[in-house]
Specification:
Layout lengths: L11 E4 L15 H13 L4 E4 L26 H14 L3 E6 L9 H6 L12 E2 L20 E4 L4 E4 L14 H17 L3 E4 L23 H4 L5 H11 L7 E5 L5 H8 L8 E3 L8 E2 L1 E5 L4 H15 L6 E3 L8 H4 L6 H13 L4 E5 L20 H9 L6 H11 L36 H6 L4 H14 L1 H5 L1 E5 L6 E7 L4 E7 L5 E2 L12 E5 L8 E2 L4 E6 L1
Parallel strand pairs: 1-2, 1-13, 2-3, 3-7, 7-8, 8-9, 12-13
Antiparallel strand pairs: 4-6, 5-6, 10-11, 14-15, 15-16, 16-20, 17-19, 18-20
Bound molecules: 1-deoxynojirimycin.
């Protein structure tokens, strides 16, 4: 089937279901809550939803440890609620993306339970290795979450590989039976009417032959041996050929440590196996490789990452654009300023919404939610945060260690969405499963609905503008003043339209800079976050978008 690529005209909204909206009063976000909020999502100008996992799961990694791929967890409302949401999404002309997590399952999945007992055909569904005579582990790989990547299983009397938590054993994708299972899962949801998949750490599914040791690497030892492994393109092509090509759907692959040249091997529109890629380069302007190694924010690093992807994918592949998701602390707390929350939130919104690609918003981003900072480390829920707190910087005081977590934890962005200023931020009428950020009385949807100048309404205007301008979809991208440490300036141009985007990333007033060839006297100022734009000075975190046509 010819790919329609409708995703190029869309804006997506990511729902991390536990914290979005509780509809049945049990304290946990669910699909009944989503149903109540579909009109809200649509009102933002979003026409697609990506659901983080909503399948049955013991919850060791908040749903990324799946126990049954072909059902919906009862706490989220089960299949009944899901079908209603799917219909509601389609009735509004929107699309729905499911999360496909097939690098690993939960250890409570039936396949793993049978595999550990060597019950066929499940015996080789996972990556098992015997103990070595010298007592060493099968190889030197680290997991991404909980120490070494191998755990001994008493039942089977062997080690199993887990690149994430101990409760997330890796599937053996080299086994054709496992690949058939993946295809069954894809068909099951596509036949039900879902419109595509976000594929979790999909670049990890093919491990190097023989599982060799990796050289020492500052973090994630082993990654060189399992990321972009030997059969990755072959397996993805197989899923595409056997299933995806037969449906009107699209795929979005999560790819840690990827840069444009490598990405094109996956997403080149001529011969790629998937449609878009979630890259992490735009997330590392304030850290080394990962949020757990924080540094100062470097605007030039952020600009370089964005521009590289814009230039190198141009005409060949399509960008996925994002600032936030459930794996990173809130963007205003990182790249913006909590003191200038509204202004920097708007400048950040503009910085990515006018690039070429399909933008994604993460729940709460549109109202400028900021990092949650618990009083004590035992308030954290996330498996990765807990492990890191207990195992790193042990010589430092508990206060210093806690502060580090505030900056780096995924839980900083996983608190319930702040709907209004009533108890529990209007998220639930019950006892919330997780802590609500105390700032909900000031930062909430209801208050911003009433204020025409709010960040929420700014997002609406920016998205509507983006959709109305041909140049945003088709124009060529150019970055200006790339050595500036204060401004991010880029233009987009077609034969008929030209757009100039100016974003200040400083809390001081700064000189307005206009690239040569852009005559503001003939331009329309179509979006701004400060009234009375001054021709020579930008206010802290001021942003403007000019149009020529
Ligand atoms: C990436 C997901 O985004 C993250 O939340 C999850 O913990 C890991 N993959 C493991 O599935």
């Amino acid at each position: 089937m010819e790919r329609k690529r409708w995703y190029k005209d869309m804006v997506f909204y990511q729902i991390w279901p536990r914290s979005f909206k509780d509809g049945d009063g049990d304290g946990m976000g669910d699909l009944w809550g989503v149903l109540e909020k579909l009109d809200y999502i649509k009102s933002l100008g979003c026409d697609g939803i990506w659901f983080s996992p909503i399948y049955p799961s013991p919850g060791a990694d908040c749903g990324y440890d799946i126990a049954d791929y072909m059902d919906i967890a009862p706490e989220f409302g089960g299949m009944e609620a899901f079908r209603k949401v799917l219909d509601g999404v389609h009735a509004r002309g929107m699309k729905l993306l499911m999360d496909l997590v097939v690098n690993h399952t939960s250890d409570e999945h039936e396949w793993f339970q049978k595999s550990r007992q060597r019950i066929d055909p499940y015996t080789d569904y996972y990556i098992w290795r015997p103990a070595k005579p010298n007592g060493k582990l099968p190889n030197n790989w680290d997991s991404n979450f909980e120490g070494k990547a191998w755990t001994w299983d008493e039942v089977r009397g062997e080690y199993y590989l887990h690149l994430f938590a101990v409760k997330q054993p890796d599937l053996n994708m080299d086994n054709p039976l496992v690949r058939e299972e993946v295809k069954k899962i894809l068909r099951f949801w596509l036949d039900m009417g879902v419109d595509g998949f976000r594929e979790d750490v999909i670049t990890y599914i093919s491990k190097a032959e023989g599982l060799p040791n990796d050289r020492i690497f500052p973090i994630y030892k082993g990654m060189r041996k399992y990321n972009h492994g030997p059969h990755i393109h072959e397996y993805l092509a197989e899923f595409k050929r056997d299933v995806l090509d037969h449906y009107d759907c699209f795929t979005l692959a999560e790819a840690p440590l990827v840069w444009p040249k490598r990405a094109l091997k996956y997403i080149d529109e001529k011969d790629g196996q998937i449609d878009m890629m979630i890259q992490f380069q735009c997330q590392t302007a304030d850290c080394l490789f990962t949020d757990y190694l924080p540094t100062k924010f470097h605007l030039r690093k952020m600009k370089k990452a964005f521009s590289d992807w814009q230039y190198k994918l141009d005409g060949r592949a399509w960008n996925m654009l994002y600032l936030e998701n459930h794996d990173h602390p809130r963007i205003i707390s990182r790249y913006g300023s909590e003191q200038y929350r509204e202004e920097s939130g708007k400048s950040l919104a503009v910085s990515y919404l006018f690039q070429q690609g399909t933008p994604f918003l993460y729940q709460g981003q549109e109202i400028g939610m900021i990092n949650w900072r618990p009083e004590s480390a035992d308030m954290y829920e996330d498996v990765q945060t807990r492990y890191n707190y207990e195992h790193s910087n042990l010589k430092k005081s508990p206060e210093v260690r806690l502060r580090k977590m505030w900056r780096s934890s995924r839980d900083s962005a996983r608190t319930p969405v702040q709907w209004d200023d009533s108890e529990n931020a209007g998220f639930t009428t019950g006892k919330p499963w997780f802590h609500v950020n105390e700032n909900y009385r000031e930062i909430n949807v209801a208050a911003q609905e009433r204020d025409p100048d709010s960040l929420l309404n700014f997002y609406r205007s920016a998205i509507a503008l983006r959709k109305s301008l041909d140049v945003v979809r088709h124009g060529s991208y150019r970055e200006h003043f790339h050595s500036s440490k204060k401004l991010y300036v880029y233009s987009r141009s077609t034969d008929r339209q030209k757009l100039l985007v100016i974003c200040s990333f400083t809390d001081r007033e700064t000189k307005m800079k206009v690239p040569s060839g852009f005559d503001l006297a003939n331009a329309k100022l179509i979006l701004q976050n400060c009234k009375d734009a001054d021709s020579s000075t930008l206010k802290p975190y001021e942003t403007r978008v000019y149009l020529w046509e």
